[in-house]
Amino acid sequence: MGDQQMRSSLEDLEGFSFDEAPWTAPKPLADSRVAIVTTAGLRPAGGDGADWNPGDQAMQILPASAEGLVLAHFSPNFDRTGWIVDPNIVFPVDRLREMADEGVIGSVADVHVSFMGAQVDHTLETIRLDTGPAAARALIDDDVDLVLLTPV
Question: Which residues are registered as beta bridge partners of 82?
Fold first, then answer.
């Protein structure tokens, strides 16, 4: 599906609205454990499934090491150039480690999460009700305080 066709099919899409937005007082950044959540469709090499399928709303837990990650995003419109030049553009774990070493953040999480961003079903029901909460549980279990979202 071309870019213009995709834009015209989404132009009337309404976003989700929530009646209440709870406020939480965040920890200071220097005390926070940070994880990456990306929509780049990353998978560990040799992991379950080589590629994401169209409309795949699964999630993939990623190790703290960027080594061995494969960009397996489904969309042909996805620009892979940045990933090839520097994986930190998509998965900036090296930058987070530098920030932790400098005391800017408290620590880097042991686990990170990847989804595939090209979604045909714009209700995102599986993500909202299943894989999203499972991803949140994995991050909570790792004592993550905040995430850096890389929506690529």
Answer: none
